[in-house]
Amino acid sequence: MVSVNSNAVEDKNFNFHVDRFGDIEVLRYEVPEYSRLTLDQKKMLYYLSEAAQMGRDIIWDQNGKYNLQIRQLLEKLYTKYNGDRNSADFKAFEKYLKLVWFGNGLHHHYSTDKFQPEFSQAFFEEQVSKLHDCCLPLAPGQTREQFMATIIPVIFDPTVMPKRVNQDGSQDVVATSANNLYGEGVTQAEVEEFYNNMKDPSDPTPVSYGLNSKVIKENGKLKEQRYKLTGLYGPAIAQIIYYLDKAKEVAENDAQRAYITKLIDYYITGDLRLFDEYSILWAEDTKSDIDFVNGFIESYGDPLGMTGAWESYVNFRNAKSSERTETISKNAQWFEDHSPVDKRFKKDKVKGISAKVITAAMLSGDAFPATAIGINLPNSNWIRAQHGSKSVTLENITEAYDMASHGNGFNEEFVIDANTRKLLEDYLYITDMLHTDLHECLGHGSGKLLPGVDPDALKEHGSTLEEARADLFALYYLADPKLIEIGILDNPEAYKAEYYKYILNGLMTQLNRIEFGKDVEEAHMRNRQLIAQWIYQHGKKKAKGGKDVIELTKKGGKTFVKINDYPKMRELLGELLAEVQRIKSEGDYKGGNELVLKYAVKVDPKLHKEVLNRFSKLDIPPYRGFINPVYTPVVNDKGEITDVTISYPEDYVQQMLRLSRDYSPLTKKSNSVCTK
Ligand code: ZN
User: Fold this and answer.
1) Distance CA 140, CA 527 (A)
2) How do residues 66-109 score in pLDDT, each as one tens digit?
3) 344: Cβ contacts below 8 Å, ≥ 6 apart
4) pLDDT, tens digit, 9 for 90 and up, residues 646-663
5) Ligand 1 centroid vs 470 CA: distance in angstroms?
6) Distance, CA 527 to ligand 1 centroid (Å)?
7) CA of 375 to the centre of ligand 1 (A)
8) Cβ-contact 55, 310 below 8 angstroms
9) What gap in Å lies between CA 509 and CA 129, rounded to an integer?
């Protein structure tokens, strides 16, 4: 049983708030129970953290080809500026730099829209003119004039590289996306043909094509540039390998040593078969206390969903809370067998889904500063089917979000009445956490593709529909008496807290993250609106007494979500789950496309405006992320590490500048020392 208030917070005076700018709030997270780790575990965590931070530059370059150059220039201007740091131009410049740090590049991490500077081009050019040539991050052979002519429109012209990931299927999503995963002149049709020729439909264990490469055009022909020691990002990968090697020496057991070795071999060769072998060994290691992800993993940054964004998580097990997820995963087959999905699309045998709750200790790459609260890996479909997957819930991160939100006025503004607010206060924290557990450890792992179905068949809607599938599975089972029976919930009404919040978010409050006049773009947001809108539309007149299952009702001129029939809502969730699973299992692109376009993309402008207005009075940031703690080895006279301390000495700016100074293997060379 999990208590409602399972606070793992150790220090009651811990300050979660770090910085606030634009639509972003930066928090810090606590690392509870760090002190229980042994010296070898602390060393391992330290080396893995170094390996994590050494990859930071990679994601910057993947996100846009001018990102690293521009970051160096902005940081130089920021630190060398000797005018009035309270002037409007400088304040706007500082805000821009903070946003760029948060986006790991010039585009918003979530909307993927380019940031628009609020300082003048004249101010910028004047500041740059004060820098000596040796302070400018010029590319080899590049002159100051060429450099400026390139970056000025990239920074200031809203029509140049406007979107990092364009998912508008009516356009060439490769050519119109500003990311750096495809070279100049490469088109979507060419990439699709390139990989279709490579794929063998009869291969039961295909590698994840394109996962670790940039596709470029050379003499009119496409070719892959691999991310590997002697290839693209080699200098960063060399540093990652160096620290992985150190971590290997203090690994907890042979299984862990084996997969670290395999990961190093993969980084050296870029061979995706080795990555699969590593992934299998990693997924099968459920014993180790310290664990990590380090590599090219999630493909949301690629409009075709193939290339992995570099990321790293370092963590250790939260033993107490892991009992909860272990119970869920022990019952995985029961959940699979009883789901409302057609039998043909179910797994006969759910392969070892191991689930645990973890304490995050270091976030990096695509997982930093904005991070996920749950992860389920590996992503390869056949590995998941044959070897299972590992699912984790990042409890100290969820905890930090929760602690930082107390008393922000959200519930008073958006939740319909005192009873519902009480329900949310009592049960939202635990049901939210359970939703993440169920989503990651059962949802993504459930179901199967029919033989011969291409895992990429749903194309630009693949991510949205996959997230919808996992969310629906989780929501459907949150209301199941099974959760009471196996002892992980103590109240059969608790699920209503998550149902209410989910619909409120999907129909209304997540619109706060979208600029007025724009559509819903990001995969997770589309998924949430898809589910909420579908249930809303299909629940008309379906509740007891002929009412609507979900109502949008007015009170004092404001719109509120009212749920009239929770059990009926659960039935509808089951229906939609069956349909989304069918689409996935059959690779029905047409069906998926219809569902997404009809429910997930368009926004009611009147409601959108109202939500933005109501939020603007609350000053709640739509997006949040984290800075990391600092780990410092204590070294004795003989050069041996005798301890690794943890501390939180920095603010956001200090941490970002330190990372760029100490962990930038891809920028060092052009970063010549200027003494002027
Ligand atoms: Zn997911």
Assistant:
1) 44
2) 999 999 999 999 999 999 999 999 999 999 999 999 999 999 99
3) 450, 585
4) 999 999 999 999 999 999
5) 6
6) 10
7) 7
8) yes
9) 45
